[in-house]
Amino acid sequence: MSELVNYASGIPLALRVLGSSVQKIYINDEKEILRRLRQHPPIEIQDAFRKSFDGLHDNEKSIFLDLACFFRGENKDHVVNILDGCGFSTDLGIYALIDETLISLVDNSLEMPNIFQDTGRFVVCQENNKASKRSRLWDSNDIADVLINNSGTEAIEGIFLDASGLTFELNPTVFERMHRLRLLKLHCPTSEIHCKISLPQGLYYLPDELRLLHWEKYPLGSLPRNFNPKNLVEMNMPYSNMTKLWKGTKNLEKLKRIILSHSLQLIKFPRLSKAMNLEHIDLEGCTSLVKVNSSILHHHKLTFLSLKDCSHLRIMPTTVHLESLEVLNLSGCSELENLHDFSSNLKELYLAGTAIREMPSSIGDLTRLVTLDLENCKRLQHLPPSISNLKAMMTLKLSGCSNLKSLPVLDALFLRNSQRLDTR
Question: How far is Cα 202 from Cα 195, in angstroms, rounded to an integer?
Fold first, then answer.
């Protein structure tokens, strides 16, 4: 009974109803009982849930169903970004759901009792007997059936597929009838060798309504030519085969996060000059990338930029105009020799393993810098005197800097920060 007690999440009605239901089911296997109850919550639970759910505004109903089907346990700020992009008043909706005790906020993660999640999902299942005509799909069997048989419809708003252990081919028109698709996540773990979604004939279409495009191991060299990402809030496509995103410049006014990490074939930094709201760029491990073009200078809201382990990167423009940038990671860019001035807002700067010989004298202007990592910068010969101006410095890493000749400029830094400076 322990699993059933945990499933009830301490809700008195759930404990009583589940206990009563178990007595009526002549099965000794507790896991099988739980599986059945999760697929078909008892009528008493459904009725109690409906009293709360039916009294919600449409905004809160939609948000709750998205949370129950896709985002349980996710970071609140991340979810708000995506669902705001869908036109919801997400913050207001979340706190209304908290007031109704349907969800809770734990360490900024959105949580809900198991039984509420399953009842919310049951509401979606009741929309139609056919999975292809429901608004949200999360069951891998349902999704595989819809995608393989190319039976998607305009009813579908969200698809979250854990493709672990799955291998199948998709038709190039697989998304053509899903005009209202706003959330797409195809999760394919890197450690899972039996996980492959292939498109042997290419992909002709992606819906313009997409807010979240999360496709791990995307198999093609670019996105569909006619895809208009005007509504896209997040593009998360690690380990892709893309050499470029698309030809030309696209309207990306809503885009906030782009993650193309470990896309080994990516040869061009994406043209993102119209992504005026971009906050996060992760291109870690894109080993074919040689340069970052000057379009990056337009991203005045950018707070995070990682080019870690881009081992062929040689050209990196100044970031001095990126007044919001807090984290810049260039560690492992072993062919990067020259650095330009940095954003004065930086808090973390990672340059380990680069080929730099010296630091710009303007490093002393980074008065908010907390971490500076210069480990294994074997060509680095000296640090500018201005480094002693770094009043907020807490971590300075210099191990492996075998050509660093002297450190007299650090005296003032040590005297001021001796109680908290880590120089490993």
Answer: 18
Q: Is the pLDDT of residue 290 over 60?
A: yes
| Residues 6+ away with beta carbon under 8 Å from 55 | none
Cα–Cα distance measured from residue 333 to residue 313, given in angstroms and rounded to the nearest whole number: 6
The residues facing 236 across adjacent strands are 214, 259
Other C-beta atoms lying within 10 Å of the C-beta of residue 245:
23
**Alpha-carbon distances of 299 from 110, 280, 323, 328, 329, rounded to whole Å:** 30, 10, 9, 14, 16
Element at 339 (helix H, strand E) = none
Q: Read off the pTM.
A: 0.90
Whether 101 and 11 share a structural domain: yes
Domain boundary among 213, 246, 268: 213
Q: Which of 102, 100, 38 is nearest to 65 (CA)?
A: 102
Alpha-helix runs per DSSP H in 280-358: none
Q: How far apart are CA 135 and CA 140, in angstroms?
A: 15
Task: Specify the number of domains making up the chain.
Answer: 2
> Coil, strand or helix: which one is 268?
coil
Check residue 28 and give its pLDDT: 55
Residue 328 resides in a domain = no
| DSSP β-bridge partners for residue 185 | 160, 214
Measure the CA–CA gap between 314 and 289, rounded to whole angstroms: 9
86: which residues sit within 8 A by CB, 6+ positions away? 182, 183, 211
| Cα angle 386, 387, 390; round to 5 | 110
Instruction: Give the number of other CB atoms < 10 A from CB of residue 3.
Output: 11
Q: Is 388 helix (H, G, I), strand (E, B) or coil?
A: helix
* Per-residue model confidence as pLDDT tens digits over 167-184: 999 999 999 999 999 999
Domain that holds residue 27: 2-123
* pLDDT tens sequence across 211-222: 999 999 999 999
Largest Cα separation within the chain, whole Å, is: 80
Q: Is 108 exposed, middle or buried (0-12, 13-18, 19+ CB in 10 A)?
A: exposed
